[in-house]
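Run log // design_07
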């Protein structure tokens, strides 16, 4: 499912681990739970398009000066991974954010391409949440908003 270079970023789905004391379990990194306005709990694939970033924000693990291992998904990899996990009933949607690679507009354009490919090419009607990147042009923000609301 994932290229070998990406396996360290996204561990196997469904491999349960305990989180110390307390109740419940988690299903591995990348799957998170969110609640809808009507109270339903939904499972989302929560990933970064990339953890490369041109900025050096002290609070961020993806900052330029951080020595974390870097990785970047292609648009097609995110689409394939989302559809595969959705078809296997592991997730009900996608929560996608990203470090900023070359510019806010270039990064947002990739996020929009993910949403367009899912919605228009594959007819995906699951939940899609894309993070708005600070500094993105108004035109791209309009397109991003349309992909999230206008196509549903």
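design_07 sequence
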């Amino acid at each position: 499912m994932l290229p070998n270079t990406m396996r360290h970023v996204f561990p196997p789905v469904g491999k349960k681990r305990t989180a110390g004391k307390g109740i419940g379990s988690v299903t591995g990194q990348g799957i998170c739970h969110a609640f809808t306005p009507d109270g339903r709990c939904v499972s989302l694939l929560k990933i970064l398009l990339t953890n490369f970033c041109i900025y050096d924000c002290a609070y961020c693990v993806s900052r330029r000066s951080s020595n974390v291992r870097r990785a970047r998904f292609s648009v097609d990899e995110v689409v394939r991974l989302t559809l595969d996990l959705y078809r296997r009933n592991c997730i009900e949607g996608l929560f996608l954010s990203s470090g900023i690679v070359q510019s806010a507009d270039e990064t947002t354009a990739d996020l929009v391409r993910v949403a367009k490919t899912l919605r228009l090419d594959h007819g995906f009607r699951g939940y899609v949440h894309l993070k708005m990147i600070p500094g993105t042009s108004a035109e791209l923000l309009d397109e991003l908003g349309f992909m999230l609301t206008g196509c549903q």
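The helical segments are 75-87, 104-122, 138-150.
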